[in-house]
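Notes to self after the Tuesday call (sharing in case useful).
The group wants a holo model before anyone commits to mutagenesis around the pocket. I volunteered. Ligand is 1,3-dihydroxyacetonephosphate. Logging inputs and output together so the record is complete.
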Amino acid sequence: MSPTLTAAGLYPKVAHVVPAIEWATMSDDVDAILRLKQERNAVILGHNYMSPEIFHGVSDIVGDSLALAREATEVDADVIVLAGVHFMAETAKLLNPAKTVLIPDLRSGCSLAESITPEDVRALRRLHPGVPVVTYVNTSAAVKAESDICCTSGNAVQVIESLGVPRVIMIPDQYLAGNVARLTGVEVITHPGACEVHERFTPTDIRQVRVDYPGVTVLAHPECPSDVVDEADFSGSTAQMQEFVESRRPARVALITECSMSDNLAAANPDLEFVRACNLCPHMKRNTLGAIRRALETMTHEVTIEAAVAERARLAVDRMLQVGRPGR
Ligand code: 13P
Ligand code: SF4
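Result:
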């Protein structure tokens, strides 16, 4: 991000979704964060679910979980602030063991990450010997350490297909696993985890959106139950939703996912109408400008991972990052 940026200069990027009077209350924090990033030689990685003042205002690199993991391997700053949830900060730390990785609020968890323990994974392996374990990145480093390979919602199909086996253990999201099983034809053994944000959507919600907003194009995240995905026109990760919207430019669109996704796309695409049929993720929303400013002022909360766990977890993430690379 350029050193000359200021809150006032950034306002046009969010003007479509943040009223000027609200931006005025944020400017002090935005300017302080821009200054602190330079002083600390820090970059902010912001997930697509960050609210617009964070996503468009102070983040240096934005994207879905896969893009943030890939970009984390390229960072040359001393400090990474992960504006997202804890598992994302752990992934950034796994890929940057020598850098300081900060998370603005330690309470930024994830219902999927909390649904499964390393012992659960070992138990699944005992039950299904020889079946590879594919672990969604929305898990702790300790769970990744028990896994053969990771995946995100953006590459789950490619990761499963890369294994060339008829059966996999895919944890911990039962809905993502079910959606991927249908797309790949691979038999999937899963775990009863769910995203508390996406499991709340129902097929009736989508049918109602179509009645209320005629002509709407509906995009659903693959963490939604399969009957919700079936009602949508397209299903994909947050980056794949963005790609769909920006290439196809549907005049009216509903993103069946976390609410900030629509806000951020609406800010950049003011000519499109976004129907806010969305839910908030309480963990993502722990990230505020104030929390990010404090993180950089006090250099907290630093993410650490025990060396033995990190070494094994990194293997699973690295294997994922190799999928789709030339030669694979
Ligand atoms: P994406 O990888 O699609 O960004 O999803 C991350 C997430 O937490 C969805 O709930
Ligand atoms: Fe976890 Fe769901 Fe929040 Fe994503 S939206 S961080 S999967 S609880």
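Two things stood out.
The chain has a mean pLDDT of 97.
The longest strand covers residues 42-47.
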